[in-house]
Amino acid sequence: MKENDFYDVVILGAGIAGSLCAYQLINKGYKVALIEKNAQPKRKICGEYICPDGVKFLEELGLSDSLVGRRSIMGMKLVSPSGIEVDTFFPKRNSNKYSIGKSIERGLFEKDIISKSIKLGLDFFPNTKIDKLIQDGNGHWTASDGQNTWRGKLLIGADGIQSIVAKTLNLNKKSEHRKIAIHAHLQRNNLLPDLGQMHVLRNGMYVGLNPISNQEINFSLVLDKKFFDNSNGVNTFVRNLIDSYPILKKQIANIEETDHFNVLMPISKKVKSIIGKNAVLMGDAAGFLDPLTGEGMYSAIKMSKLLAEQIDLDNIEQSLSSYQTLKIQFFKNKIQINKIFQLIIKSSIMSNLIGHFLKTHQYFANQLIGLIGNIYTPKTFIQSLFLKFKNKGY
């Protein structure tokens, strides 16, 4: 068995979380191995949307050129179950610059980040499926694919829902979540504005649409599994659903039997903890909830930032503990916001009432999308509404 170099950090998974973390750690001077089971980055079940705060962070990392040519998203179109349409726009961060999100082709974006990291000294090992992890008495980890081994001081699991790192550390927790996601890249029916879209449907279902290009749209449907169990195939199910919502139908070309849909069930992962001895989880491996607000990519970006900033190989235990604390603090508010939105979409009456209010109160609609787009924290969001009421400018 071939033994590779000894590394400061070994990262499993070269998705958004793993590749961005590797890029930041390489820039801090660490020797990093990034191991990916696929031969090259590929598109996954993902909305492929980066919110304004995620764009801001990538720019701060010096990765602005990785966003060049990607479609800018200026806000979100919200659609209620009864068909009320509200176009919202991300609030400005300051008086001079608009906040924008980005639509990206995820596989190409990840490939670009990895390429930049390799030029800086990253050792990248694609097409490598790790099947065994062993920790020695010094706390160092050895990852093996049966033919080669990689040893390191710190092991990072950014290897998705089926994380071998989480499994080895016995960190997975059973989830009772019943919702599923149906995802595809579909042909667009017309030229959409530079807005992402969230269509709240009946029975707590919702559809996210993200315009990737003039020809392609990223389609994500989330629903309770019981509504899909007795369907006559995913293509027929989606076609019938879209046909029953005229606003959706005019956005998407006819669904053909040749269109490829991916189904993910359940769309939830829970873990007991995100850290172990000299090991840590991030990205989807660290757990996620129903992605109502398009948080998947932003969560990965944010976790990569928090972890890379905290890592100190001279004090691994303390740095990982600090990362876990910061992660819990940050995502606590996001989880609460998600729960509120989930309660709203369960009721078509409530969703329609809120849709009507936002349709007639553009300021509040834009502030809400500022919260969803991570431009505002819940605290600053409430403060902005309070000042508007106080000044009677609504």
Overall, the morphology is: globular
Average pLDDT works out at 88
CATH topology of the domain at 2-72 and 99-174 and 268-341: FAD/NAD(P)-binding domain
CATH homologous superfamily label of the domain at 2-72 and 99-174 and 268-341: FAD/NAD(P)-binding domain
Q: Describe the biggest sheet? A: 8 strands, mixed
**Terminal Cα span:** 69 Å
Provide the β-strand percentage band.
15-25%
Query: Which consecutive residue ranges, at least 5 long each, have pLDDT under 50?
Result: none
User: What is the architecture of the domain at 2-72 and 99-174 and 268-341 at the second tier of CATH?
Assistant: 3-Layer(bba) Sandwich
Q: Kindly name the structural category.
A: alpha+beta
> In terms of quaternary structure, what is this?
single chain
User: Regarding CATH, which class of the domain at 2-72 and 99-174 and 268-341?
Assistant: Alpha Beta
Approximate helicity band:
25-40%
E-strand count: 20
- Put simply, the count of helices is 11
Nearest-angstrom radius of gyration? 22 Å
